[in-house]
Write a structure and sequence with these properties.
It holds the Pfam family Kelch_1. The chain has 342 residues and is an all-beta fold. Helix content is 0%, strand content 45%.
Length: 342
């Protein structure tokens, strides 16, 4: 085991792999419990393909292709159960196109284009049902623009600009409906700044800085409403530092570090409130380690290693409380997927 506190929790490889190896893709849990994987980067380039995973049979199958091949995009489950895929990158082209997947017909249809092309952006479903997209990169230039998608009209409209342009950042919807954006990379370097978006006014307000600048980190909303930020990269250094944002105080506090430095990892909140962090990379090497954070103790415990090291993968908590990890990169795009009973 990886540490004296490693649990017996094990990872099992799903016998049927995805049809395509992919990383920089998305994975979305549909209202029927199936998982929709879209796009990404494969061995032959950017992918149009989408695949569905059925947890009851543990089988993958193909579903309708997206109209535009894309990676480093976002996928959001709308209140009507459809999936909105937006922007991204395809072989030197930055995209502003968006499309909708209907799980009942398995067909993709185009919807309104965004006002700006972008990749490495964020997309958050607001409590009013609109989707807020923030920042990202356009030809290597960090963006401060934000826009809202209205599913009733299919139209994107601009909203207030962030105070700092950023990509590779995070966005988390707080319990009061505001959106907390953290870190990323700006036009002057790595960012420790964080800001709050108020959907009722469309305005961004600066809140306190994180203790560490970080890029390609994760942010997870805990059951107590605090936000847990993990790892990332700062100016060539890989981080194991972890901090908590308290929305009521507007302050960041450092908590226990992870056992491994990592960025390009995934973080998922379990139904019991613990946070599972998987994979990523450190010093250019993909990781197979996984660890669990317990908010009640503030302690990280290593669990069993995944069967495959992977970065830029996805991790989804299924309705049966198993963790599903898909794809990623370790010298090549991976088509493997694995499950962990937590």
């Amino acid at each position: 085991s990886t540490s004296t506190t490693a649990s017996t929790t094990g990872w099992s490889i799903i016998t049927a792999s995805m049809s395509y190896g992919r990383y920089f893709h998305t994975a979305s849990i549909l209202t029927n419990g199936n998982v929709l994987v879209t796009g990404g980067l494969g061995s032959g380039g950017t992918l149009h393909s989408a695949e569905l995973y059925d947890p009851s049979t543990e089988v993958w199958r193909s579903t309708g292709n997206i109209s535009y091949a894309r990676c480093q995009h976002t996928a959001s489950i709308l209140t009507n159960g459809k999936v909105l895929v937006a922007a991204g990158y395809d072989n030197g082209i930055y995209l502003n196109s968006a499309e909708l997947y209907d799980p009942s017909t398995e067909v993709w249809t185009g919807t309104g284009n965004m006002n700006y092309t972008r990749n490495y952006h964020t997309a958050s479903l607001l409590t009013n049902g609109k989707v807020l997209v923030t920042g990202g990169s356009d030809n290597g230039v960090s963006l401060n623009s934000a826009e809202l998608y209205d599913s009733s009209t299919g139209v994107w409209t601009g909203t207030g600009n962030m105070n700092y342009a950023r990509y590779g950042h995070t966005a988390a919807v707080l319990t009061d409906g505001k959106v907390l954006v953290t870190g990323g990379y700006g036009n002057s370097g790595y960012l420790s700044s964080t800001e709050l978006y108020d959907p009722s006014t469309g305005v961004w307000n600066i809140t306190s800085n994180m203790n560490y600048a970080r890029l390609l980190h994760t942010a997870s909303i805990l059951l107590n409403g605090k936000v847990l930020v993990v790892g990332g990269s700062d100016n060539g250094a890989w981080l194991n530092s972890v901090e908590l944002y308290d929305p009521s105080a507007g302050m960041w506090n450092v908590t226990s570090s992870t056992n491994y430095t990592r960025y390009q990892h995934a973080a998922s909140v379990l139904t019991n409130g613990k946070v599972l962090v998987t994979g990523g990379s450190s010093s250019g090497v993909a990781l197979n380690s996984a660890e669990l954070y317990d908010p009640s103790t503030g302690v990280w415990n290593a669990i069993s290693n995944m069967n495959y090291a992977r970065r830029d993968h996805t991790a989804s908590i299924l309705t049966n409380d198993k963790a599903l990890v898909t794809g990623g990169y370790d010298g090549a795009a991976l088509n493997s997927a694995e499950l962990c009973q937590l």
